[in-house]
Design brief:
305 residues, mainly beta, Immunoglobulin-like, Jelly Rolls, 2 domains, 5-stranded antiparallel sheet, 2 helices, 16 strands, 34% strand, disordered N terminus
Length: 305
C-alpha cells in the first residue's frame, strides 16, 4: 500500500509541475454519454432512377436508397450537381449518363455509388381510331340517342331508305341505302321545339391530335329555304354528355355545315379537320335546320394521316 501511495504522489507532483510549466491546466475530455454504444453501422450508398414526367422524357427522378447517411452529393455526369436527398434532373436528351452519389454519415464516414442512366424518349403511341357505331345508319336510330333530354326528346332522327348509294366502305351500290332524315318539323336552331331531333354519339380519341370527321348529306330543292338557308349541321362537342340540354350549350370544337341543296339522292361528301382536346373525350352532335327533306349518311371519324 505504501508503494502505491508513493507512486500516486509522484504522478500528482508531475502533473502539478506540468501545470506550472504550461499557461493553462483547463483540460477538456469528450466522454461518451451514459448508455451510449459504439457506431458499428457504416453508411452504404444506393439509388434508383425513373423517367416519371409524361410531358418531358428528359426529366429523371432519383430515389435515394442509401443507409446511415446524413449528407448527399450528386454528380449527374454533366457538370451539374445537387445536395438534395431525392433530386430530379433534366438531361439534355437521349443518351447514357454516368451518375455518382457520394454520401457521408455524422461521423464523417463516406461511401459512393456510380450508375449509368439510360435516358430514352418513349415511342409515340398510335392515334386511337374510334369506331362510329351505326355510322351507315343500317341499324336505324341505334347508338345515336343521348341518355336523356330534359325538356326535349331522345329520338335522334327519322330513319330513311333514301341514304347515299355509296356504302360505308366507299363502294357504289347503284341503289339507295339506309340513312338519317330531318324535316322542318324535326329541325333545331331557331326552329327548336319539342319535336326537334338531335343525333349524339360519344367517342374517346387521342388527346391534342388532328382528326377528321367525314360524312355525306343531301337536301331536296323544291321548297323555300328557312332563315339562314336549309342545312344539316354536324358538330364535334368538347366532352361527353348524358343530358341533351347540356349538349345543346356545350363548347364546340368543330362545326361542319352542309347547305348545298342538289336534290334528293345527290349526296355531297364533307371532310373537316379539327384538333382534339386534352381529355380525348369528344362527341358528335348532329341536327337539321331545313324546310325540306335533308339526309345524312356514312359518318366517319379518324385521325389525320
Amino acid at each position: 500500500m505504501k508503494l502505491i501511495t508513493h507512486k500516486f504522489g509522484m504522478l500528482f507532483s508531475f502533473l502539478f509541475v506540468l501545470c506550472l510549466t504550461i499557461t493553462s491546466c483547463d483540460f477538456e475530455f469528450d466522454l461518451p454519454e451514459e448508455g451510449s454504444i459504439a457506431d458499428n453501422t457504416l453508411p452504404t450508398a444506393a439509388f434508383s432512377a425513373s423517367q416519371t414526367d409524361a410531358e418531358d422524357f428528359r426529366i429523371v427522378t432519383f430515389t435515394n436508397q442509401s443507409a446511415s447517411a446524413t449528407s448527399y452529393n450528386w454528380d449527374f455526369g454533366t457538370g451539374d450537381t445537387s445536395e438534395e436527398k431525392d433530386p430530379s434532373y433534366s438531361f439534355a436528351g437521349e443518351g447514357v449518363y454516368t451518375v455518382t452519389l457520394d454520401i457521408s454519415d455524422g461521423n464523417g464516414v463516406t461511401a459512393s455509388v456510380t450508375n449509368e442512366i439510360n435516358v430514352i424518349e418513349p415511342e409515340e403511341p398510335d392515334d386511337i381510331v374510334p369506331t362510329v357505331l351505326n355510322g351507315d345508319f343500317d341499324g336505324g336510330q341505334d347508338d345515336w340517342k343521348i341518355e336523356s333530354f330534359t325538356d326535349g326528346t331522345t329520338s335522334p332522327f327519322n330513319s330513311s331508305s333514301d341514304g347515299s348509294p355509296v356504302d360505308y366502305d366507299g363502294n357504289d351500290t347503284g341503289a339507295k341505302t339506309a340513312g338519317a332524315k330531318w324535316t322542318m318539323g324535326t329541325s333545331a336552331a331557331h326552329l327548336l321545339s319539342g319535336n326537334s331531333r338531335f343525333a349524339y354519339q360519344a367517342f374517346t380519341v387521342s388527346p391534342n391530335k388532328t382528326y377528321v370527321v367525314e360524312w355525306e348529306y343531301a337536301i331536296k330543292n323544291d321548297a323555300t329555304d328557312v332563315t339562314g338557308g336549309d342545312r344539316l349541321v354536324l358538330q364535334i362537342l368538347d366532352g361527353h354528355y348524358s343530358d341533351g340540354k347540356d349538349a345543346l350549350t356545350a363548347p364546340v370544337l368543330s362545326e361542319t355545315v352542309g347547305d348545298d341543296a342538289l336534290g334528293k339522292g345527290n349526296f355531297t361528301v364533307l371532310k373537316t379537320e379539327f384538333e382534339t382536346n386534352d381529355s380525348g373525350k369528344i362527341a358528335i352532335w348532329m341536327f337539321g335546320v331545313t324546310s325540306e327533306d335533308a339526309y345524312a349518311d356514312n359518318i366517319k371519324l379518324y385521325p389525320k394521316g
